[in-house]
Structure formats: C-alpha cells, structure tokens
Design brief:
By secondary structure, this protein is mainly beta. It is built from one helix and five strands; from the N terminus they run βββαββ. The chain has one domain. The strands form two sheets. The chain has a three-stranded antiparallel beta sheet, covered by helices on one side. The protein has a two-stranded antiparallel sheet with strand order 4-5. A hairpin with a 5-residue loop joins strand 1 and strand 2.
Length: 74
C-alpha cells in the first residue's frame, strides 16, 4: 500500500492519504502541503496495511534519507 504524506520539517505527519489506482471504485484524495510543509509518496510497512491511517500517523514520522523519504517509528 502506498500513501501520500504531508509532514513538517521535524518529520511529524500532518495528513495521510492512500494512493488509489486509476479505475479503482474508491474515491481518491490528493494532499496539498501548506506553508512550511512537505509532501512525499511512501510505502506503508506490511504490518500496518489495513490499519487506520490515523494509527500510522501516530506511530511513525517521515525521515528524509539520501535515497528518499521513508517512514520510521517514533
């Protein structure tokens, strides 16, 4: 599962939205980052797939690494 994450400079996740494939019957949401916020496309860890996105945001933060942003446990 892939998500868009809006986050602050400290990696704190402000909002998450699941990326919905074209042709999927579900409604897709696109995040627009506010001032001083960043946006990243991330892969959700396998143990979190199917869990509420709010739970994911509470347990993880975004870490910017040389190979791109990734989710890391708090």
């Amino acid at each position: 599962m892939r998500v868009h994450a809006a986050f602050g400079a400290d990696g704190h996740i402000i909002a998450l939205a699941e990326i919905v494939a074209e042709g999927d019957d579900r409604l897709g949401i696109r995040l627009v980052p506010g001032e001083d916020r960043k946006l990243a496309e991330l892969t959700v860890p396998g143990e979190c797939v199917g869990r509420p996105l709010a739970e994911l945001a509470a347990r993880y933060r975004v870490e910017e690494a040389a190979d791109g942003p990734r989710l890391t446990l708090l």
